Amino acid sequence: MTVIHVPGSKSVTARALFLAAAADGTTTLLRPLCSDDTEGFTEGLTRLGYGVRREPDRWHIEGRPLGPSVAEADVYCRDGATTARFLPTLAAAAATGTYRFDASAQMRRRPLAPLTEALRTLGVDLRHEGAEGHHPLTVRASGVKGGELTLDAGQSSQYLTALLMLAPLTAEGLTIHVTELVSAPYVEITLAMMRGFGAEAVREGDTFTVAPGGYRATTYAVEPDASTASYFFAAAALTGREVTVPGLGTGALQGDLRFTEVLRRMGAEVTTTAEGTTVRSGGTLRGLTVNMRDISDTMPTLAAIAPYASSPVRIEDVGNTRVKECDRLEACALNLRRMGVTVHTGPDWIEIHPGTPKATGITTYGDHRIVMSFAVAGLRAPGMSYDDPGCVRKTFPAFHEEFARFAAQGAG
Ligand SMILES: O=C(O)C1=C[C@@H](OP(=O)(O)O)[C@@H](O)[C@H](O)C1
Ligand SMILES: C=C(OP(=O)(O)O)C(=O)O
């Protein structure tokens, strides 16, 4: 049995940074994720004049309920969609100030129009420099009164998360009616964490109601990243091993832990206790048809091990993976075909047929999940290479070293 300690959750760390910055008092984050995305987030907070002091495994954030301490700032959000969508929303709550946000070429391509339109509906002066609904953009803050909104979060749940986290900072609170929603479990993380920082948020069906009143500082322990854990769980199922990830147990917040249910349906044995989750290979993997709308960050993980199943794997309702770090449906299809696998795609689905994949040069499109997913397939097809192996820095800078150590343990 191999025990893997995976780094902290990106989603939990990003939310905790937002909530801590907006809170009354100093928050301590325990075991936050240290990666390009979360460093970009803390760098953004620092530029906005928030105090962030980092010790190993312990970050201290001085909350500023009245908003940024600087009147003007230029913030570079790198590749992080949480940074690029959450920070302009946090800045909008300030009583006054002019804040410009830009992002990498990859992030500039990714949409945020439903969020920027919602902010404008709430009276925020938000201007784009180029295409509407894309970075770069400037927020001229004058506080947010609050009120009622209708939001389409069918492309990204992050629009809803940003607005929910803004809500307690508004004068009157916010009611949000959601018409479409993807990645729904991420919204549950948001609500749970907002409550952990003292906010009152209620969900009734598709309507979210959040009271004004701000946030209270706290000490917050970040759980391990469930999407990152998916590579080790998939590896166990694929190579006849047993892997335990401590810290992702029955109380875990992240929906992506449900990837283990997919592995169970394919034949793996899964045990979840209060302390963690164990995946044990059950021999041959079976194919399946699975809806991954709720857990689409793990779609590439499944796609990469799919050709080793005894029957086709069809992954449905994952159209929004086309607007992630890259078009993930096409990136998976292209790389699997290069490995000699038969693959079909549609607007929101991918179907992968059993095969005998061979190693190839992976085109990563600078997407960390393409690298990490195909590294799992590489355990059965040794010799894989990547045009941008370093893009794993987004969520797991030490991935290659840790995964090589894990693979060596299995060989030994
Ligand atoms: O809120 C979050 O932390 C996230 C939500 C999901 O995005 P979408 O809602 O855009 O699918 C997920 O893919 C992303 O990695 C992190
Ligand atoms: C989609 C992802 O990231 P984000 O949207 O937060 O940039 C991801 O980490 O897979």
From TrEMBL:
Alphabetically ordered keywords of this record: Amino-acid biosynthesis, Aromatic amino acid biosynthesis, Cytoplasm, Transferase
One Pfam family hit: EPSP_synthase
Protein residues bound to 3-phosphoshikimate: K10, S11, R15, S156, S157, Q158, D297, N320, K324
Keyword field contains Cytoplasm: yes
Domain Enolpyruvate transferase: 4-402
Active site, UniProt feature: D297
Gene Ontology CC annotations of this record: cytoplasm
InterPro entries the record matches: Enolpyruvate_Tfrase_dom, Enolpyruvate_Tfrase_sf, EPSP_synthase, EPSP_synthase_CS, RNA3'P_cycl/enolpyr_Trfase_a/b
Gene3D superfamilies hit by this protein: Enolpyruvate transferase domain
Name used for this protein in its record: 3-phosphoshikimate 1-carboxyvinyltransferase
Species this protein is from: Streptomyces nitrosporeus
Gene behind the chain: aroA
